[in-house]
Amino acid sequence: MVREVFESVAGKYDIMNDVMSLGIHRVWKRIFVGMLGARPNMKLLDLAGGTGDITFGWLRSGGGPAILSDINSAMLSVGRDRAIKAGLIGQIEVCVVDAEAIPLPDCSVDRVTIAFGLRNCTDKDAVLREARRVLKPGGRFFCLEFSRVEIAALSPVYDTWSFKVLPKMGQLIAKDADSYQYLAESIRMFPDQETLAQMMRDAGLERVQYRNLSGGIAAIHSGWRL
């Protein structure tokens, strides 16, 4: 079902992200990339990387080779085209990857990222365990995801935006209201900040922390493999 949703919206995904977040997702992603500590000798695995925003940000920040991965080939096709236009394709390996079963050896990458993708994974615990497995000792996992709003006054406005406005915009812009209804519902079903932090600890990640963005509408979680 997730594959079908993202195949349906792939061509309009970047436009809809701007509409859904009023452009704020670009600020969130800049903050996220800035926290990665990119270095030329480091290798990135970008899970559920879709159209490539995080991978491109990593490379432009001075990071080393990157694997842009996603379970959906339609999304990766858009990402590959964007990489070619940006002159970055030579530094990127593009792979169809199920984040619950990563086809990489243990201790093989320095950073694992997943931005707005973990909520679409069926077995989130498996994703976290796999992320830790492929990290080198001293490597770090980062997750950017919609989270639980922590400012009470924002909640009713956010609910109206998510469940009333977004599906209508999805129909107008991407000709697909149902996929955007699913996206809104998947956000509400995702674990809150503390629950996700504990899931990361249970997967073996250490020094887990998180940072709220825009009052908790989104959050960045991180953890180390030590």
Automatic annotation (TrEMBL):
Its EC number is 2.1.1.163, 2.1.1.201. The keyword Transferase applies. S-adenosyl-L-methionine binds at residues 51, 70, 98-99. It catalyses: a 2-methoxy-6-(all-trans-polyprenyl)benzene-1,4-diol + S-adenosyl-L-methionine = a 5-methoxy-2-methyl-3-(all-trans-polyprenyl)benzene-1,4-diol + S-adenosyl-L-homocysteine + H(+); a 2-demethylmenaquinol + S-adenosyl-L-methionine = a menaquinol + S-adenosyl-L-homocysteine + H(+). Pathway: Quinol/quinone metabolism; menaquinone biosynthesis; menaquinol from 1,4-dihydroxy-2-naphthoate: step 2/2; Cofactor biosynthesis; ubiquinone biosynthesis. Keywords: Menaquinone biosynthesis, Methyltransferase, S-adenosyl-L-methionine, Transferase, Ubiquinone, Ubiquinone biosynthesis. It comes from the Bacteria. Transmembrane segments: none annotated. Belongs to the class I-like SAM-binding methyltransferase superfamily. MenG/UbiE family. Methyltransferase required for the conversion of demethylmenaquinol (DMKH2) to menaquinol (MKH2) and the conversion of 2-polyprenyl-6-methoxy-1,4-benzoquinol (DDMQH2) to 2-polyprenyl-3-methyl-6-methoxy-1,4-benzoquinol (DMQH2). This is Ubiquinone/menaquinone biosynthesis C-methyltransferase UbiE. It comes from Gluconobacter japonicus.
